[in-house]
Amino acid sequence: MSANILAHTRADERQSHADATDVILTGDRPTGSLHLGHYAGSLRSRLALQGRCAQTLLIADLQALTDSSGRAAHVARQVPEVVLDYLAVGIDPSQTTIAVQSRLSALAELTVLYLNLVTVARLERNPTVKAEVELRGFERDIPAGFLCYPVSQAADITGFRATLVPVGDDQLPMIEQTNEIVRRVNRLASAAVLPECRALLSSTPRLPGVDGRKASKSLGNAIPLSATADEIRGLVRAMYTDPGHARASDPGRVEGNVVFAYLDAFDPDLTTVNELKERYRGGGLGDMALKRRLEGVLEALVAPIRARRAELARDRAYVMDVLRAGSERANTTTQAVLRDVRGAFALDT
Ligand code: TRP
User: Fold this and answer.
1) Do residues 217 and 29 make contact, with C-beta atoms less than 8 angstroms apart?
2) Fewer C-beta within 10 Å: the chain N or C terminus?
3) What is the CATH number of domain 3-207+315-344?
4) Which residues of 172-200 are buried (b: 16+ CB within 10 A; e: fewer)?
């Protein structure tokens, strides 16, 4: 199964800048099923790293609550769905730990300690938090937990002594804030209690939604990892191309063309994609032919994921078992880190 899926992992993804001693941690907010943007942006690197490095995937349900406390039941229901997405793409729980943030009490305690090392002004300056505050229309009513979620994310990362974090570029400010906290803890302890971490950025630029706007579940413009063949066809047909390219013979624009963005991200044959770009630019390639190619590429990628997901979804007990075992293992790791950090704050002396 995973050999099939790994065929879509291109060479540039396999040679990430990780070495065997790296400890990898990433997280996802369980607010809905994962989509192809997640696949290109980080699931693919996680698959490439699996088995080469110690790796944990954290389902960040507490972080999801920082802006969705009114949707707590929805967030709870999404947790096993995210596990299904992980397993369906080929994450193997015997090689990668899958854990739930809210089951790791050490992370909450680390967050409380780290809050003393960060100013409100610094939190307000975090560009990702700023953009999200704007997007969600919080204005002056920002939940305190939301403003502080970068600190909780620093707890996630340091709780595993992670050194490498595969994320999208919107998460770079979180890595920077984490390292500031790491340096403060180490200064307090006069010892290297925690390692600094670095981001592992995907070589694929952020995938747009089918309409060319930012991909988002609420806009319905993302292609779910478990999309049916009909859904894929419908979404590909709806993709924004170049409004100036009315006839196949017209010269077309490749930049900003969503179909090419997806081909760049997923077509295993980049030589052909480059030839298609030439033909499109020069005039002589219609949108329909291009979209048919993409449909084939996406169906080949998604079909095995969809089949495996459907099979696993029938075994709820197994999914729950993966979560329980992973969270137990993660609990041991994070409690040990917490002991060291408590020491830096002169607790337990
Ligand atoms: N903030 C991340 C996102 O919105 C999710 C996340 C939570 C995370 N904890 C993390 C990412 C730790 C990397 C490391 O996608």
Assistant:
1) no
2) C
3) 3.40.50.620
4) ebbbebbbbbbebbbebbeeebbbebebb
Ligand 1 closest atom vs CA 156? 12
Q: Report which ligand 1 atom has the smallest distance to the Cα of 25.
A: 14
Q: Where are the domains of the chain?
A: 3-207+315-344, 229-312
Whole-model pTM? 0.91
Ligand 1 centre to CA of 113 (Å) is: 19
Round to whole Å and give the CA distance between 188 and 19: 29
User: How far is it, in rounded angstroms, from Cα 72 to Cα 61?
Assistant: 9
229-312 has which fold? Tyrosyl-Transfer RNA Synthetase (1.10.240)
Residue 156, CA atoms < 13 Å, CB-side half-sphere: 32
Mean pLDDT within 104-114: 98
Q: How far is the CA of 230 from the centre of ligand 1 (A)?
A: 31
Mean pLDDT of 244-273: 94
